[in-house]
Design goal:
With 279 residues, the chain is α/β, with parallel strands linked by helices. Helices cover 44% and strands 23% of the residues. Helix 11 links the parallel strand 11 and strand 12. Helix 3 packs parallel to helix 5. The longest helix has 21 residues. The chain is globular and about 45 Å long. The relative contact order is 0.12. The chain binds ligand C2E and magnesium ion (3 copies). The site of ligand C2E has 24 residues, from strand 5, helix 3 and strand 9.
């Protein structure tokens, strides 16, 4: 719905509003206001154990609940947020919202699953990232093991030596770490071995043609085997069909996320999924 026109103009295409043009500054201003008005909220997508079919985790994904436009997806504002630095307060707010939500689910007696938050490249480059995360965890009195951070391959490979130190610090705090979008960047397998991560997420692009493209199927199988050799849990992203799921199961993949099970949903709906799972 938002398309970039040239360098400076964004345009919301809304059938119901007849289209609304916004330049970059307007867009930035709107995003800033959204942040202040708490319009940026986490939706949650289940991570499902392939062997048992049960929900074993969740990923928090930011949504902009615009009062006029409705729900705006992150692909439409994260790039600008990265560019302007607004991603820092947005990421921080997400972190606090998610920590509080985990506590609320605990208090409601729901299963104590880990919840993952996506960390942006800019956040990852902050010198005080670990302290900031520690503060959010402490404020909500959370067991750090309940919080997982998703980092992309390109983000950690960019300054791999520096990343190893940051990742170690986060692991020592007790957090879970996962490498997101695996297979889309330049992976250096030497570093993969050195990164103290728990989980590897196979990018959706390999999953989408899994059942029709033997090369993608071979890559997925190899990534699963390699991850297990390294002691990592493997999650497949973007599973949309039963056939894809069967193939991943045959290859020993541990968990999956995808529309087949559920889209990312608001906290109240995720809670219903968790309760249904308890029965
Ligand atoms: P990601 O972290 O790789 O998240 C997975 C994306 O795949 C999500 O898109 C999810 O809705 C989508 N997805 C899940 N299952 C399926 C499926 O079966 N089919 C298809 N077609 N898509 C599926 P979403 O929520 O639009 O987020 C897109 C990206 O935006 C994320 O990719 C992540 O890189 C970024 N993002 C989202 N929330 C945050 C956030 O809070 N902070 C930061 N820094 N980035 C975020
Ligand atoms: Mg992610
Ligand atoms: Mg991903
Ligand atoms: Mg992605």
């Amino acid at each position: 719905r938002v398309k970039e026109h040239g360098r400076n103009s964004y345009r919301f295409f809304l059938p119901e509003m007849g289209g609304m043009a916004l330049d970059k500054l307007d867009m930035e201003g709107n995003l800033r206001r959204a942040l202040e008005n708490d319009e940026l909220v986490p939706y949650y997508q289940p991570k499902v154990n392939i062997a048992t079919g049960r929900i074993v985790g969740a990923e928090a994904l930011v949504r902009w609940r615009h009062p006029k436009i409705g729900v705006v997806s992150p692909n439409e504002f994260i790039p600008l947020a990265e560019e302007t630095g607004l991603i820092l307060p947005i990421g921080e707010q997400m972190l606090y919202q998610v920590c509080r939500q985990i506590r609320a689910w605990d208090e409601a007696g729901l299963p104590r699953i880990p919840v993952a938050v996506n960390i942006s490249a800019r956040q990852f480059r902050q010198d005080d990232l670990a302290q900031r995360i520690r503060r959010a965890i402490e404020e909500s009195g959370l067991d750090p093991a309940r919080l997982e951070l998703e980092l992309t391959e390109s983000m950690v490979m960019h300054d791999a030596d520096g990343a190893v130190g940051t990742l170690r610090e986060l692991r020592l705090m007790g957090l879970q770490l996962s490498l997101d979008d695996f297979g889309t960047g330049y992976s250096n397998l030497t570093y993969l071995k050195r990164f103290p991560i728990n989980t590897l997420k196979i990018d959706r692009s390999f999953v989408s043609d899994l059942t029709t493209n033997p090369d993608d199927a071979a890559i997925a199988a190899a990534v699963v085997a390699m991850s297990h050799q390294l002691g990592l849990t493997v999650v497949a992203e973007g599973v949309e069909s039963e056939e894809q799921l069967q193939l991943l199961a045959a290859n020993g993949c541990d968990q999956y996320q995808g529309f087949l099970f559920s889209r990312p949903v608001p906290a109240e709906d995720f809670e219903k999924l968790l309760r249904r799972d308890l029965e």
